[in-house]
Amino acid sequence: MKKIITSAICLYSLSLPVYSESTPDGQPILYCPNSVKCDFKLYGTERCRVMDNPSEVWGGYTFSGPKLLEGIYKFKRVEVSAEKRPVCKYYLNDKQPAPLDISLNDPNSNYPTTTTRYINKFNPFLAEGTSWTGTNFGMSCSSNDPKHCPLTEEPEITVTSNGSKSFDMVFYFASGNDSEWEPKYKSSSILSYNELYDLCGSTSECIIDIGESSACRDGFDCLQLGTVSLDLSNPNVVKINKTTSSIPYLSIMQKKPFNTLYSELK
To answer: Domain of life of the organism in this record (predicted)?
Structure first.
């Protein structure tokens, strides 16, 4: 059964040069960092740092081995669970008993230099020439070069916190309830392509309201912070056109290149 599922996944694969920076439909590709440097002159979470992390997608490290050694750890593998949260695996040498793991810079991450967190999910991109194996329940990719293990963002939009410098935001929309005893709005920090399609249909300009999280919690009222305009004209692709703030002292921005929005006080 496993071979049948894997074969089906392979048949679905797209043809794309491995070293591309985007898919044929324009989605940005994410790769694991090439290496992680561990330096004992540093302390705490800064003891090990990702060497190449231009979009700050990757967060802090975890290590379950008995002793962490100083040096440069090289990429060997990435694993993606059914929850679609990739974990990159690094080794200093062949005798290392357990990998040094690097995961996404999410709300639980200990990455030291940024407060903007990614809550996005990422999928293996099954292009020709990549090294992905597995099933829908979990996939892995082993290579000395992370370019052979491309990832793409789940078709969705998310909002995230930027620490004390911002508002906690949510997307909100009409609930469809026609009773004054029931909430007027529904809200969420993540909206998938299917949810967005149900709200807007196939369009190049889907407008979604952005509200303040605590004010929208009960669903009876909501404080609007701004809007986001989305292009849903390509199936299973969510593209951000622009963001607009309703408050003069607040900016709502995209954490490029992915579909994470955050706010920042001016």
So the answer is: Bacteria
